[in-house]
Amino acid sequence: MMTPVKRVNRFFLLLTAPFLGLLICMWWYRPPLELDLDVGQFAPSSGPLNETAVLKKDLTLAEGTASYTIDAVSASAKLYKGTTTAMNKLVETAKTQASRPELIYNRRISAKLGIPSEVLSSDRIRIELYKLNPGNYKAYALKIKLKDPTAMQMSLAKEATGGAETTMHAVQSHGAIAGINAGGFADKAGKRYPLSTTVIDGKYLYGFEPTFKDLSFVGLNKSGQLIGGKFYSRAQLDQLEPAFGATFVPVLLKNNIKVPIPEKWKTSPNRAPRTVIGNYKDDQLLIFVADGYNELGSSGARLEEIQNKLYNMGVMDAYNLDGGGSSSLIFNGRVVNKPSDGNLRAVPTNFLFFE
Questions:
Q1: Per the count of CB atoms within 10 A, which of 101, 130, 295, 322 is most buried?
Q2: Which helix (H) or strand (E) holds 41?
Q3: Domain boundaries, the chain
């Protein structure tokens, strides 16, 4: 498709082409002077001086024509340059105006988080770290803009099935810049297995398992958008083209609407360390990690508190990930939160972010 600037360029090229052609012809082609040798046709006063005068007149006329042509070409070139500059400015202005709604929206959601304590930006990703203190608990948030869909991945412990590793180990071994724990797990015979439906590199780890016991799937699609919810058939999930994802419970927000929290999860435990992943309507991600010193229900955040907090911050969709001692937030080579176990817990899956 031809842009406005290209159309202007083409117009002025066509406009100046005849003048340039004329100049070239005048430069390279000099017609021979043809003299009529029939002396009978000349007046007695004709001779070399008269011929010189005629020739001088012709040259003067040619010089005037060339000068006019050069001035015309110069004026056209000046107009072309001016028009091109104006068109470029119009294009830049249009781009700026088109991005204004996005900038205004980003400022609005950022204002509700406060001032970032740390910012990392590259061609692939932008991460802003915020420290939050809602009152009843302390928390941290990462606001993440994926400029490249591959800047977020999910890792699976090396043993593939039954293995586990800390989020820090996963970050370091994969060369990531940030990471959080992902889905839940079940322990069996000394091994740790991802809970329910798990997708890694676009493939189902154990096959598809329909939603049961309020479990929900959450991950990224191939376009880098957060997807999640309850799925009762593989075809239903396949339509979203998941690149990766894990399973836990419950869903907190869907389309900026509070999803009823199952009674069991309101009190079991009442308070706890939490890890939640959500997204804004412009597809930026929000990672929310609440601190707590144990899993006994006396410290950390209640799910309803986090749900209300995210709702008020304008988050569209939000999914609770594994919490308690599993909650971990790694950024720029350090553990940001305070794991309730005193140390990072080894888990089967982690969401990783790459610079």
A1: 322
A2: none
A3: 4-105, 112-353
- How distant is the alpha carbon of residue 7 from its chain centre? 30
Helix or strand run (H / E) with residue 330: strand 329-331
What counts of helices (H) and strands (E) characterise the chain? 6, 20
> Which DSSP helix (H) or strand (E) runs through 38?
none
Whether the Cβ atoms of residue 219 and residue 243 lie closer than 8 Å to each other? yes
pLDDT tier, 124 (very low <50, low <70, confident <90, very high otherwise):
very high
Q: Please work out, in degrees rounded to the nearest 5, the angle formed at the alpha carbon of residue 111 by the alpha carbons of 108 and 112.
A: 100
What's the whole-model pTM score? 0.75
pLDDT, tens digit, 9 for 90 and up, residues 201-249: 999 999 999 999 899 999 999 999 999 999 999 999 999 999 999 999 9
Q: Is the alpha carbon torsion for 205, 211, 213, 214 positive or negative?
A: positive
Distance CA 192, CA 162 (A): 5
Residue type, 294: N
Query: CA–CA separation, 228 vs 221, rounded Å?
Result: 10
